[in-house]
Automatic annotation (TrEMBL):
Keywords: Disulfide bond, Signal
Pfam families with a match to the protein in the record: Ig_VWDE
Name the UniProt record assigns to this protein: VWDE protein
GO cellular component terms given for this protein: cell surface; extracellular region
Gene behind this protein: Vwde_1
Residue stretches making up the VWFD domain: 236-297
Gene Ontology molecular-function annotations: signaling receptor binding
Length: 297
């Protein structure tokens, strides 16, 4: 009687004759008579519905299904379940063994971000878990993704101004050999917009949409958004006013009655500084200077 055979099915992507396929492989225990396998393919759609898409009986230690854009679409999580039996006793089957779910489509790593309004850049990797096919001789072997951002604010009913900035508006995923669950990858940096406003923590989404692809597989596919939480930071203020009285970021107060151009403020961590120009505005009776110009970088 057959028991658990440790078949350990695994799904890997493969490009066959220019078409994207998924391959289910499993261990092939030696047996007399030789074993046969029932391979059941199923998918979990983005709506959360699980359904069977294909079943076959085979002597091979592998099974293929095609990502055709109809029965099997990008955005699906795919499973293969394998059961073994001998030809003599087909009613005596081994315990079914299911693979881990294989997500077919575009992934972001990390899947969500928590960043702060501190000017730091955060790297977001965009990758395809399936090979990039070349649909025709005129088309290059790549997927172009248009990146957009949306600020949901504290709730989706009142979206605010952009709260994050991306280093690029498009990324290209070029065809390359599949390895470690990635068949093509690109990176983009995400930075929180410093808005000098006490607006609390906000939530933004990054959306990627394939552009310029005519084939059915990519045409109707929009990857899942990346959620970015932007943590608010308290804003510092400094002042130079009237003849000029100066209050620094940490509240220190002093006067500067001199005439000339002065460095008012400079960041030690980024390229940011403010210069101020002061001229004589006190006349003959008193030596007093006033702000007459400012330059900021």
């Amino acid at each position: 009687r057959l028991t658990s055979l440790a078949l350990q099915p695994v799904i890997t992507p493969e490009l066959m004759q220019g078409r994207v396929h998924l391959k289910c492989t499993y261990s092939h225990p030696s047996s007399e008579p030789p074993l046969q396998y029932v391979v059941l393919w199923s998918r979990l759609s983005t709506s959360g519905k699980r359904e069977q898409i294909h079943q076959e009986t085979t002597l091979d230690s592998f099974s293929y299904v095609e990502m055709d854009g109809t029965n099997l679409r990008l955005g699906d999580t795919v499973f293969c379940t394998v059961t073994a039996f001998t030809r003599d006793t087909p009613e005596q089957q081994s315990l079914p063994e299911e693979s881990k779910g294989f997500y077919a489509g575009i992934k972001f790593l990390p899947e969500s971000l928590q960043i702060t309004e501190d000017g730091k850049e955060h790297v977001l990797t965009v990758l395809s878990t399936v090979p990039i096919a070349c649909p025709g001789q005129d088309d290059s072997c790549k997927i172009t993704l248009q990146l957009t951002t949306e600020n949901l604010g504290k709730n989706s009913q009142f979206p605010g101004p952009p709260d994050i900035a991306l280093s690029v508006c498009q990324v290209e995923l070029l065809q390359s050999p599949c390895s470690e669950s990635s068949c093509a990858a690109a990176t983009v940096t995400v930075t929180a917009v410093t808005d000098f406003a006490q607006d609390g923590d906000t939530i933004s989404h990054i959306r990627a949409e394939p552009v310029g692809r005519g084939d059915l597989l990519w045409r109707a596919y929009t990857p899942k958004d990346v959620e970015v939480t932007v943590r608010d930071l308290p804003t510092g203020n400094c002042y130079s006013f009237t003849d000029p009285h100066i209050i620094t970021f940490d509240g220190w107060r002093y006067d500067n009655y001199k005439i000339g151009t002065f460095l008012l403020c400079r960041s030690t961590s980024r390229e940011f500084e403010v210069h101020v120009r002061q001229w004589d505005c006190g006349g003959h009776l008193s030596a007093t200077a006033c702000n007459c110009g400012v330059a900021a970088r």
